[in-house]
User: Which sequence fits this backbone?
């Protein structure tokens, strides 16, 4: 019965068995054997223009679909070019499997052509990694790699395969039982802790539900919303959790942190109980840790025990999957209430509403002035009715997109949160659109970010992946410029892109996309409408934006979250 | 504890797979944890290795959690002082001219240190035992002059026989 396959054939078959429908990659010497059986496979291969693009595409795909994203590269530079996307996926807990070719076993360690110590280099940027040394390992290792990437706290896994292993043969066998004695992620939370948690919640007067990216990864949005409602908890959504609860929900407070809104930041500061779920007390959320949420006790739910107590001590730690634990918490809360009404917390909710009224996010679009990025984002939201997947790069445009796009659903906001990888948007958008072809995928990118990975527009054109990219061209590395303005005495060292700004419309067209441009506020709506009407080609729209605009609110790095700078008038 | 520094002794049972030591040491380096000593060797189970790690610093909970986070880590045990048998082995070469030789050998006898090499002007002792005993011996030898010294990392085994081997029940009888 058993069938003789080459290692390369076994690899592709193993990927098929994992349900992989698309891989993003680029061939090269050491990985060549794997590309031959790919021709006969139903798996779609998307040929990128740079391996970094392949990694971010896999991540965008995984973000949007919840499935494992797969990228392939050759040995040496192919593998090292994947390191940034792997670390990016590691920081944001994105399930990605990277397959890399390696030089033949006999050459390993000899500084062979295109040799790099991929296993060693990728170790600290992956959840786990493998160097396959025996062709018979292929089916089991691929099974393990997908299992590790997708379960527990998701993350990237790299599998390095020497070329001669790909060329050897094996008797194909379906992978056996997983043999991972050291890997047993918890799913359910400890019932005692859950009970203690709901009790503490009902004793609190100023609770805040602090929802992190783990909610999205665990597909726990419905459970989050239900728990927030049952327990009557105002809820903040971190940068990685935008869309976890609809922004239009009466209990939703929006984004906390360095560029969060006043109410979300201050609610945490004044809170007497933070219920952190799938969140990790990142420095961009806490500001100065010692003065963060000084009155709050902490209930911390996370699937990764190492996150609990890492930054902030937890009064009630609960290790478990966000979705499972939220369901447990809801049941326990209903049990505790036993038909009685949930504490109304009228004072607290009134205070929060008052802050929201007094300190809303605000900006002004002068009809005769330069385009404000917030205006573009709100116009796009109006024209799409919010029904789009938004993908951002890193910087001012990212913060404005997170602040001003009303997120109503999970997996509609894709960005590089932990690593802050400039250039993320274009390839991640292509990956997202590949996985969700029926949805509008709109990247909101900066001119600095765009120039890092824009060559992938060729990939999008040739592969017929009609993403839309808004390039918010303010001719600066805007966020860095903002810091130079505020903290470096307006000495703008190496942040101006003015003299070097390319013709973005011409570039888009050269790469087979439709290129559009809006120079003035009144052109924003009509240009977006034009872009939204095009569905057979990628579209790039350059918005000539205000070069001097700054992102507010802002808590300066390392400062206490008590010092929210609401606008330039506060400086 | 030895030398008055607070050390914590932890035992890490890991799958005996290539590169596991690199994973552990890379994690310690990346997280900024400090390893005082590290000893690795086989266990009664051919699939498992045991690492005895002596670490400095107060972040024990994080260290243990980060160790567990490694996929190949099966079981981590922290040994509070006194609750484990701790051993080190040491080779110490001591200045010993003919005049002092018998005096030094007498002192060594008290510690059951074995002279394993004798030269014209030095004696090399082998001594194993708990770390305090080793450092006491060194203090005694210091006035004569310690020419060279090598210590193994510390190894430890919990005194309590209840130590379990993760989820591999077949190992409990081992």
Assistant:
């Amino acid at each position: 019965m058993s069938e003789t396959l080459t290692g390369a054939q076994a690899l592709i078959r193993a990927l098929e068995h994992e349900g992989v429908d698309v891989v993003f990659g680029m061939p090269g010497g050491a990985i060549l054997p794997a590309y031959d059986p790919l021709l006969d496979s139903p798996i779609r291969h998307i040929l990128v223009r740079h391996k970094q693009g392949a990694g971010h595409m896999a991540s965008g795909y995984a973000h949007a679909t919840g499935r494992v994203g797969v990228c392939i590269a050759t040995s040496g530079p192919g593998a090292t070019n994947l390191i940034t996307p792997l670390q990016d996926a590691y920081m944001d807990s994105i399930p990605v499997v990277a397959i890399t070719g390696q030089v033949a076993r006999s050459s390993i360690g000899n500084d062979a052509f295109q040799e790099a110590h991929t296993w060693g280099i990728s170790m600290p940027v992956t959840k786990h990694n493998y160097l396959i040394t025996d062709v018979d390992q292929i089916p089991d290792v691929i099974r393990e790699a997908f299992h590790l990437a997708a379960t527990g706290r998701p993350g990237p896994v790299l599998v390095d395969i020497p070329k001669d292993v790909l060329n050897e043969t094996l008797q194909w066998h379906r992978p056996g039982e997983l043999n991972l004695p050291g890997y047993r992620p918890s799913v359910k939370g400890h019932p005692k802790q859950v009970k203690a948690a709901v009790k503490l919640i009902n004793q609190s007067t100023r609770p805040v539900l602090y929802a992190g990216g783990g909610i999205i990864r665990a597909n726990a949005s419905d459970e989050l919303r239900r728990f927030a409602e049952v327990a009557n908890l105002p809820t903040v959504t971190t940068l990685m959790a935008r869309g976890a609860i609809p922004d239009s929900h009466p209990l939703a407070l929006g984004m906390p942190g360095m560029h969060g809104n006043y109410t979300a930041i201050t609610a945490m500061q004044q809170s007497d109980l933070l219920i952190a779920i799938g969140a990790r007390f990142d420095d961009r959320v806490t500001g100065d840790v010692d003065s963060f949420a000084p009155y709050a006790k902490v209930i911390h739910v996370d699937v990764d025990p190492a996150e609990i107590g890492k930054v902030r001590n937890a009064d009630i730690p609960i290790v478990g999957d966000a979705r499972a634990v939220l369901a447990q918490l809801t049941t326990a809360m209903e049990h505790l209430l036993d038909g009685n009404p949930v504490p109304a917390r009228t004072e607290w909710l009134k205070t929060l509403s008052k802050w929201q009224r007094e300190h809303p996010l605000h900006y002004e679009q002068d009809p005769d002035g330069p385009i404000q990025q917030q205006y573009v984002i709100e116009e796009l939201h109006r024209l799409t009715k919010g029904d789009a997947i938004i993908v951002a790069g890193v910087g001012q445009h990212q913060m404005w997109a997170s602040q001003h796009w009303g997120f109503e659903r999970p997996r509609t906001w894709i960005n590089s949160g932990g690593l802050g990888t400039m250039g993320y948007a274009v390839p991640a958008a292509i990956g997202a659109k590949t996985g969700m072809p029926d949805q509008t995928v709109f990247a909101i990118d900066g001119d600095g970010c765009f120039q890092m990975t824009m060559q992938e527009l060729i990939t999008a054109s040739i592969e017929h992946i009609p993403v839309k990219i808004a390039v918010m061209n303010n001719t600066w590395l805007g966020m860095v410029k903002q810091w130079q303005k505020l903290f470096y005495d307006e000495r703008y060292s190496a942040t101006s892109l003015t003299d070097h700004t390319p013709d973005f419309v011409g570039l888009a067209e050269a790469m087979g996309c439709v290129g559009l441009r809006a120079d003035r506020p009144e052109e924003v709506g009509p240009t977006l409408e034009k872009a939204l009407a095009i569905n057979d080609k990628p579209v790039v729209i350059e918005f000539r934006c205000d070069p001097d605009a700054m992102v507010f609110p802002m808590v300066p790095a390392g400062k206490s979250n008590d010092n929210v700078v609401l606008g330039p008038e506060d400086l | 504890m030895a030398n008055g520094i607070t050390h914590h002794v932890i035992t890490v049972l890991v799958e005996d797979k290539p590169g596991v030591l690199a994973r552990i040491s890379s994690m310690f380096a990346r997280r900024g944890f400090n390893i005082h000593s590290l000893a690795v060797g086989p266990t009664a189970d051919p699939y498992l290795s045991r690492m005895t790690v002596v670490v400095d610093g107060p972040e024990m909970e994080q260290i243990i959690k980060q160790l567990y986070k490694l996929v190949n880590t099966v079981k981590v045990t922290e040994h509070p002082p006194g609750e484990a048998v701790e051993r080190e082995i040491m080779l110490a070469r001591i200045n010993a001219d003919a005049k002092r030789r018998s005096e030094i050998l007498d002192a060594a006898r008290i510690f059951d240190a074995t002279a394993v090499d004798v030269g014209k002007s030095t004696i090399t002792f082998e001594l194993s035992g708990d770390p305090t005993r080793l450092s006491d011996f060194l203090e005694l030898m210091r006035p004569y002059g310690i020419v060279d010294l090598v210590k193994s990392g510390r190894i430890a085994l919990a005194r309590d026989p209840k130590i379990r081997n993760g989820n591999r029940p077949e190992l409990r009888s081992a």
Remarks:
- Residues 20-31 of chain B form the longest helix (12 residues).
- Residues 163-174 of chain B have pLDDT under 50 and may be disordered.
